[in-house]
Amino acid sequence: MAFSIDEFRIDGKVAIVTGAGGRGNSIGRAYAHGLASAGACVVVADLNESGAHSVCDEIIAGGGKAIAVGVDIANPDSVAHLAQAAINAFGGIDILVNNAALMVEVAMARAADIALDDWNRMMSVNLTGALLCSQAVLPSMRARGGGKIVNQLSGGAFPALSLYGVSKLALYGLTTTLARQLGREKINVNAIAPGNTMSDAGRMLSPDDSPFTKLLEATVAMRVRGQPDELVGALLLLCSPAGDWITGQVLHVDGGWVLRP
Prior knowledge:
Layout: E1 14-18, H1 27-37, E2 41-46, H2 49-61, E3 65-70, H3 76-90, E4 95-98, H4 116-143, E5 147-152, H5 163-182, E6 187-194, E7 196-197, H6 200-205, H7 211-219, E8 225-226, H8 232-239, E9 250-253
Parallel strand pairs: 1-2, 1-4, 2-3, 4-5, 5-6, 6-9, 7-8
Helix pairs in contact: 1-8, 3-4, 4-5
């Protein structure tokens, strides 16, 4: 059968995006808008419930379908409520984007010096939170005959030079494990590893004159910095029928920062 551009459409699919309530120039907000523009009913989920409602209102004002749900992804009961809210509003769940993460708070913490409480907090959100959300949506995906899970990694995991990078490298392991275990159930599990993205958080971590930015300028193959909207194409590929034969993979959207065989 010939390829059709319609294979990038996800009309009527139900998509949960965690960490989507960021105001301003955030990746989660860009993901939520991108999925809505491709036809999905979007569940805008965030610990910041007021931010989630703001993004939800933007989508609805633009003609899309969305609800806002406050969620603590490190809390199993809160995650269960999120999944049920999606089912109650739209009838089921087809897509999960595990975007929520701690980054700015302890992004460059050294593992050799990290306090155990900070280690546990980072892992409970960046790794366990993704697991809890994945587990919560699986019954609905199975009942609907399949689904798509996309985990948010980072170029900073290849190699991991900080606690944040360690948590994202661990999430890569969870991605491949779930992909192997769920593939025969038509549930695809992939990841996106952004480069130096100029979200509000990204600007805070890597200002123009930072040593990290200077290092990227000397090594990245193309443009050093990108915008959140530039990640949406990769997301739509992984969430749409166009990506049905892709699982267990990491798409590096970073201008050639991480070059892997």
